[in-house]
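Summary of Year 1 activities. Much of the first year was spent building the evaluation harness for sequence design. The harness presents a backbone, in tokenized form, and records the residue chosen at every position. We chose the following record to illustrate the format because it has been used consistently in internal testing since the harness was completed.
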């Protein structure tokens, strides 16, 4: 995970913790508090899933780029080697 992603995840976790504490100390009935807390945690879970999915997609794209670069370099090296063999 890069630094920006770590900051976003930490920020989201802090926001969720703050919201949970705010809900727990709010002067409401227990059932309402539990429902709000449940909703907040569900939203946090959804956000974490979305962030993880985006990071997985980014890593897959990076992997594809690296593989293509390696294939290109191997092909170039093979062509140079074949040229050297033909001219030797």
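For this record, the design step produced the sequence shown next.
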């Amino acid at each position: 995970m890069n630094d920006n992603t770590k900051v976003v995840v930490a920020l989201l976790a802090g926001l969720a913790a703050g919201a949970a504490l705010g809900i727990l100390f709010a002067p409401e009935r227990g059932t309402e508090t539990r429902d709000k807390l449940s909703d907040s945690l569900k939203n946090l879970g959804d956000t974490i899933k979305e962030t993880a999915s985006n990071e997985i997609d980014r890593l897959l794209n990076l992997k594809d780029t690296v593989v293509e670069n390696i294939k290109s370099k191997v092909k170039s090296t093979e062509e140079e080697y074949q040229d050297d063999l033909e001219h030797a």
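The first helix runs from residue 3 to 25. Quantitative recovery figures across the full test set are reported in Table 2.
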